[in-house]
Design goal:
Elements (H helix, E strand, L loop, with lengths): L5 E6 L3 H12 L4 E7 L5 H8 L3 E4 L8 H11 L4 E6 L4 H10 L3 E4 L4 H12 L9 H19 L2 H11 L4 H8 L3 H15 L4 H10 L4
Parallel strand pairs: 1-2, 1-3, 3-4, 4-5
Helix pairs in contact: 3-4, 7-9, 7-10, 8-9
Length: 212
């Protein structure tokens, strides 16, 4: 194995497909198969012992499935690269996998060459996705943005606008005539809905996504 060889770990419950993928990686220059398993039950142990560069992971597996596996892996290692490899192209599985920390999303109809190219691409900093999946991702996150906007109440949007204008919670309370405690409650709701933790982050997202 050379320093440029990519170490790949496979999770796939279908034995025939797992063997096919194993053979593909074992006989392709530039790749090193460092493990192949039927589920993610011992994902943390596999990660520690095999030290993969890229993990190719099915979603629907008995025992510990791929979504749970990504969660376990990310709890141990934030940097290892994870490619989901699945028959599922529905929004729920796609969004959940990406939110848990997957770096790419391949469908099982992809050719061996496309699989190898995707592994190389994700290792080079890309986010490979099967044709059609990228379009779904764009649409999915657009829906999430619309949902976030609609989730903000008129009063929360007013408070967010005042935050964008640089006003503190006390200044917003004075401006609106509401109590400081009430404004703090609105700000907490805004943080929760925008998935941020500070006024700076809230303002940045509000400006970037034109929420106000």
């Amino acid at each position: 194995m050379t320093s440029s060889t990519l170490r790949v770990l496979i999770y796939e419950d279908n034995a025939e497909l797992r063997n096919m993928l194993s053979m593909l990686l074992a006989h392709s220059p530039g790749f090193d198969l460092c493990g192949a398993f039927p589920d993610c039950t011992d994902a943390v142990k596999h990660l520690t012992e095999n030290k993969p560069d890229v993990i190719l992971c099915d979603i629907d597996m008995p025992g510990t499935d791929g979504i749970q596996g990504v969660r376990l892996i990310r709890g141990q290692d934030k940097n290892v690269l994870i490619l989901m490899y699945t028959v599922f192209d529905d929004n729920a599985h796609l969004f959940e996998a990406l939110c848990e920390g997957a770096n790419g999303y391949l469908l099982k109809g992809d050719s061996p060459a496309e699989i190898l190219n995707a592994i190389k691409e994700v290792h080079s900093g890309g986010a490979p996705m099967s044709p059609g999946i990228a379009k779904k991702v764009i649409g999915l996150f657009a829906q999430q943005r619309q949902k976030t906007e609609s989730d903000l109440s008129p009063r929360e949007k007013e408070v967010l606008l005042l935050m964008v204008q640089g006003k503190s919670a006390k200044m917003i309370a004075s401006h609106t005539g509401l109590t400081f405690a009430t404004i703090r409650s609105y700000i907490k709701n805004i943080y929760d809905k925008l998935h941020v933790h500070s006024q700076t982050e809230a303002v940045s997202r509000a400006i970037k996504e034109r929420l106000v």
